[in-house]
Design goal:
There is one protein chain. With 227 residues, this protein is mostly beta strands. The chain has helices at residues 5-15, 106-116, and strands at residues 20-23, 39-42, 68-69, 83-88, 95-100, 122-139, 144-150, 154-166, 169-179, 185-205, 212-215, 220-223.
């Protein structure tokens, strides 16, 4: 029996190394919701819009209005001023002190540091300050984060998060609260932040690595511990 359009589409993308599709099934592409690629996230909208995140050719997603950020790898210039010191090791895993400097971007910088140092599963806490931060509030209907920008100098009063494995690479999940000059607080899911003058992070690795798995209802990579 001849392959369907969906079969041919999946085979072509899989051969190119694509792991995740951001798009919409509809009409002749309905077969894409059948087992094919290992990772899929479907966003509401027209079947005419499909973008391939894992190839780096992520087009603007017409399904999301302005002011929303979809889940995905951190975007940023990294943290060229980052310095790290191993301050503990043992059966419970390594403990790190990680310092980010002026102009360093938190999410992309810590992600690249974790990849370089083979930090696979950990929890972390931090305090410091930033000249800009973008928080997100997760919109269940749109399966994306509503942008909550802070475009001023702020104190990072609390930052907590974890690191888990997604497709054998470390993925950060961080929430934070910042204080503004008038004493009010803002916070949420951290999308990105630019440090000024410093961010002091303690990272505690775990003895065992834990994977995160795609949750089909939310489109998020979540921990699913084994009993």
């Amino acid at each position: 029996m001849a392959n369907t359009a969906a079969d041919q589409f999946v085979a072509t993308l899989a051969a190119a190394g694509v792991k995740r599709i951001y798009g919409v099934a509809g009409d002749s592409l309905n077969g894409l919701t059948d087992p094919g690629l290992s990772r899929r996230v479907w966003l509401a909208g027209s079947a005419a819009y499909c973008c391939l995140a894992s190839t780096g050719a992520l087009a603007a997603d017409a399904a999301l209005p302005a002011g929303y950020t979809p889940p995905g790898p951190p975007q940023g210039n990294g943290a060229p001023g980052l310095r790290a010191q191993l301050v503990g090791s043992g059966g419970q895993g390594r403990t790190w002190l990680v310092i980010l400097a002026k102009g360093d971007e938190v999410m992309s910088g810590l992600t690249r540091w974790a990849e370089t140092n083979n930090v696979r599963t950990a929890h972390l806490t931090a305090i410091g300050a930033a000249q800009h931060a973008l928080f997100g509030w997760f919109d269940r209907d749109r399966r994306a984060y509503r942008d909550l920008p802070v475009n001023q100098q702020c104190e990072i009063a609390s930052l907590v998060g974890d690191i888990g494995l997604v497709e054998n690479k470390p993925q950060l999940h961080i929430h934070a609260v910042v204080g503004l000059r008038d004493g009010t607080m803002r916070g949420g899911h951290l999308v990105n932040a630019t440090v000024w003058p410093t961010l002091e992070v303690f990272v505690q690795e775990t003895a065992q690595s834990v994977d995160k798995h795609l949750d089909s209802e939310t489109g998020l990579d979540l921990f699913h511990p084994q009993a």
